[in-house]
Structures are given as structure tokens and as C-alpha cells.
From TrEMBL:
Top-level division of the source organism's lineage: Bacteria
Residues annotated as domain DUF397: 6-53
Protein name: DUF397 domain-containing protein
InterPro entries attached to this UniProt entry: DUF397 (IPR007278)
Origin species: Streptomyces olivochromogenes
Length: 58
């Protein structure tokens, strides 16, 4: 399993609803719930993440 280096999203709120994102593995972006660091990790290809990020930035 890759060693993801997670960072908390700048869009995370102060009420505990936070996500962390890791982009240190080439071609892959990993997302997890910051409250459950041992829980599931969503992995997507970088191009899919880029499309998501563009649409969320609107």
C-alpha cells in the first residue's frame, strides 16, 4: 500500500467536517475523513480529481 501524505483541505470547516487529501503518489489522489484516519480511503486518478476540483471551485 502506498504511503500517502495527507493534508487537511483548506475548504474544511471548523466543526469537524473535514477531509484530507494526499497527492504525493504520481497519477493518484487519495481522500479520507480526517476524523477517521484509519477508515476507508477514496483513491481517484489525478485527471478525475482535477475535473472535480474545477467544478467545486465555482
Amino acid at each position: 500500500m502506498p504511503q500517502f501524505e495527507f493534508a487537511k483541505s483548506s475548504h474544511s470547516s471548523g466543526n469537524g467536517e473535514c477531509v484530507e487529501v494526499a497527492r504525493n503518489i504520481p497519477g493518484t489522489v487519495a481522500v479520507r475523513d480526517s476524523k477517521d484516519v484509519d477508515g476507508p480511503i477514496l483513491r481517484v486518478v489525478s485527471s478525475a480529481w482535477a475535473v472535480f476540483a474545477v467544478h467545486m471551485g465555482r
